[in-house]
Amino acid sequence: MDAQPTSPSRAALWMSGWLSLMLVIAIAGREALRGLHVFQVMELRSLIGFAMVWPLVHASGGWRAMGTARPGQHVLRNVVHFGAQYCWFAALLMIPLAQVVAIEFTMPIWSAVLAVALLGERMDRGKWVAIALGLAGVVAIVRPSATTIEPGQLVALASAFGFAASVVLVKSLTRTDAAIKISVWMLVVQSVIGLLPALHVWAWPTPAAWGWVAVVAFCGVYSHYCFARAMQHAPATVLVPMDFLRVPLTALAGWAIYGERVDAMTVVGVLLILAGNLLNLRRR
């Protein structure tokens, strides 16, 4: 297949879809969790996701084409991702939206560390500087010298580390399996491991809760589709800095919808985390 021609305007259009959907899923997730348990939201997200992902599966050859020679690694990846996703949803109700997203952006830092440990990638001085900046940003946001540390900050940090481990496992899976196959296995495995916990805390959703869960499922499936399409029109070094817009956009949404304020130390932490990521991207 011929490579797609570079088109910054098309890449920006698809990235605007990614940014919008990721912003909406944070708000929809918080609203859904007001009346439902995290396990229930995650289970319904996976089940509804099956119907929403069907057009992509059909275009890729149907369910028979979703077979894999590496089921064990798919299961491992999704157990890790399930835990990280649980922490991310839980953090939405514990700390401001801007802090959740800012701490989430430490994921590339942890991914670099895990890639060295698990995939044998090399770590040089520049990568260590990027990691140090990211960690300094976390310290600025969490402020461990204060009298107390917000539990939600630690939960969000655990989520970021879990997502990083999931990214490393996905990177390995992409050597043999297509993106749609990885997505389908995510829905299958996570719906299975989340079924019993969801039934244990089951409460029948209100019509409003059904609506918010459907929004979460839609954004969860098609946000990644938008990002993949953007990748067809521009390199990652162009797209990832655009993703940093999620931090100020989420902070603005938190202020406008929930009256959340962002203090100066959080801003400093965000800038340090973004500086570490940009340094890593520029070196690549």
Give a written overview of the molecule.
The chain has 284 residues and is an all-alpha fold. The chain has one domain (8-283). 77% of the residues lie in helices and 0% in strands. It is built from 13 helices and no strands. It has helices spanning 8-32, 38-59, 71-92, 97-104, 107-119, 125-142, 151-173, 179-193, 195-200, 207-231, 236-243, 246-258, 264-283. The longest helix has 25 residues, at 8-32. It is globular and about 45 Å long. The model has no long low-confidence stretch (mean pLDDT 83).
Could you give a short description of this structure?
With 284 residues, the protein is mainly alpha-helical. It has helices at 8-32, 38-59, 71-92, 97-104, 107-119, 125-142, 151-173, 179-193, 195-200, 207-231, 236-243, 246-258, 264-283. Helix 1 packs antiparallel against helix 10 (207-231), helix 2 (38-59) runs antiparallel to helix 8 and helix 6 packs antiparallel against helix 13.
Tell me the β content.
Answer: under 5%
Low-pLDDT stretches: none
Question: How many DSSP E strands?
Answer: 0
Described by strand count, sense and barrel closure, the largest sheet is: none
Mean pLDDT: 83
Structural class: mainly alpha
Provide tags for this entry.
single chain, 284 residues, mainly alpha, 77% helix
